[in-house]
Each structure stands twice: as C-alpha cells, then as structure tokens.
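In this supplementary section we document a worked example of the pipeline. Step one takes a protein sequence of length 184 as its only input; no multiple sequence alignment statistics are reported here. Step two produces a three-dimensional model, which step three serialises into structure tokens for compact storage. The input and output of this example are shown verbatim.
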Amino acid sequence: MNKEKKEKEEKDKAEEANVTTEDQKVRNKSSHFDTACTSHITPCAGRLLNYSRCGGFVKSSSQKSMEIVGKGEVVMDCVLRDGSVFSFCVRGVLYVPDLAHPLISWRKSREKGYTEFGEGEYISINKGTKVVFEAVFDGNLFRIPGILHSAHITYVFWHQAPTYLAPSTMDESLQLYSDADIPA
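The serialised model returned by step three reads:
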C-alpha cells in the first residue's frame, strides 16, 4: 500500500505547475501605419533587436513631447490579405516608452523607395512589385495585421531549442575524455 501511495504522490508531483503572476502588462501591441509620423517608433522595448541607447524627444500630433530612450531594429511578420506572411526588418526604430502603440512611418518608408496603394479600407506598401505589408483602417489609424512576437518563450519552443553546455559541464567532460578534441 505504501508503494502505491508513493507512486501516486510522484505522479501528482509530475503534473504540478508553478505560475508567477504580475500586475505589469506585456507591451506587445499591433503596429500602425502613419502618414504623418516622421520616424518609426515603438513603446515596446522587448521587440527591439540591436538596441542602443540614444536620447532626444519626439512630439505627438497633440504636441505632447515624449522622450526617446533608445533605438534598434524590429522584425515584422505581416499577414497579407491573401493569408501569406511577409517578414522584414525595420531599422532605425526609436524606443519611446510613452507612445500608445508602435508606428511605422510612411515618410521613412517612401525615402527607402517603397510605394503606397490605397483601396477602400486597405493600404498596400510595395517594394517594386512585391507587397511588403498591408494596413487596414481601424477607425483611427491603419493597423498592420501581423504576428506579434514576445520575449516569453513557450514550453514547446524551450524543449525544441538546441542545448548549450555550461562551462563547468565542458570542464567535466574534458576531464572524462582525455582524448577529446574539444578546445579548452
């Protein structure tokens, strides 16, 4: 009987889950396409790659001054109307924590040779003949449908990720296999 109880406890423990909660909201919002914005801007630091600190200020359309804290690159996976996904990197994105949602600047895009085509509730942004992203009017701005990435990894991703040995494990492995061809 004691063995069955121990097996049940081990099974219950194996099914246990630990959860941490915080009041802080995850800032992973949809990007909007803005024809008046002079720079690409985001309030979501977690989406920035190759981040570097920088300073300055930007003004909103309501003349509110907001501090620039840094800049970087954002990878966007934009869902097109035909269901396909087009991925690209937006460089020189300013990090402005007080901004309501990420903005992709038409002015900056136009300078890089992109063209714009409007049709009803949609705007398509093209590079040559290729549609890079589309934006749909949400009542205020043109929202860019996309797949949002988060800094929080999933269980499946974690268990499919390649493993990397810690330096202490490497040292132990070298001691076990004296003929190992592993640089120290």
